[in-house]
Amino acid sequence: MGSAGPRGAGRRPLAAALLAAALTAAPGARAAADSGPLPARVPEGASAVLDGLKTYGQAVLRGGDGSVRQLRAGLYEMRVDGGGMLQTYGVGVAGNAQPQSRYTESGWNGSPLAGNGQAGRIRWVLEHSYPQLNDLAGLAKAAGAGALTAESAAAGTQVAIWRLADGARVEAADPAAEKLADYLQRAAGQLPEPPASLALDPGEVAGPVGTRLGPVTVRTGARSVSVTPDAAAVAMGVRVVDAEGQPLTNAVNGSRLYFEVPAGTADGTASVTVQGATKVPVGRVFTSGVPAQAQIVAGSSESAAAAVATAVWPPAPEAEASAAPAALGTRTAPVPTATTADEQRLATSGSSSATPVIASLAVGLVVLGGLVVLVLRKRPLEGEG
After folding, report:
1. In 337-369, which positions are buried (b, 16+ CB within 10 angstroms) versus exposed (e)?
2. Which of 30, 134, 257, 293 is deepest in the core (most CB within 10 A)?
3. pLDDT per residue over 41-67, tens digit each?
4. H/E element holding 314?
5. Which of 218, 216, 226 lies closest to 197 in space, CA to CA?
């Protein structure tokens, strides 16, 4: 018995270490099984490249620590992909927007204005100041600003936007621009968020094969937009049609699109792109991936815009049933009723791609448990020997 104790004690730490290693590995394996790429943002509206600051004056930013910073304040210009120009103001006072940065159109919720109760007032400022109001004499009279130039009007408007967006302690260096900023901040009312220049609502639809998936509604200010299904959809025989099943190549605001998926089509996805030219509404935000450098539209020419919607359909049940034995490389055999019921309960319980990993870990734990039992049972035999 005396010799059994040390040998058993040596085996027990080894089994415990293996068991601990298996348990430690489980969370990492589960995380690896559940991880996956983040969904890509669905394109909506216009995309553009920042040309730089074009019409501006000077401003002074005062920090809470007593610091003083000189800033350029005014209008930027952006070149729209596919044609068109935008005039924009910066949203954040801390952002130094870099020329040649790429931007995409966004709603307020996808920008630094998300949850900002002053966003509607910023849009009011844009609608009631330069460059939307080109009558600088009339704008100066309303603001009590004396005489305004394009530069001082742009500077005063930018300062008012910074105050509303950031609550910044910022002043225009030019007295006329400062009076305009005060007037705009004081007079600003609330306006609703503007619509996208071009959007598809919803951006994704799903349903069974042999049906029309949709509708997807066109939202745009363009007079007309082109409708183009992707090459994969065409290859599978998927058509983009209207409610009567007629193929669509053009659409207008309010048009409803459907994906017509023929019966027997293998599981997959298809997309449709709509494109057109329209003015980007004042107050739409453009983001570059750097929140501090976001821009907000103050003026737009006719500009190219595009939007994409996707359709998804699941595989047919027969295909799933026939694919499973082939993938496993086994012959089909009758399955007891109880097993079928258990499988159905598993299917409805939300099993995921982590299931095989968890199952293999469970088998390992069972084997380790068996080793521990054998070690403990072997101890009296060794003592007797």
Report:
1. eeeeeeeeeeeeeeeeeeeebeeebeebeeebe
2. 257
3. 445 899 999 999 999 999 999 998 989
4. none
5. 218
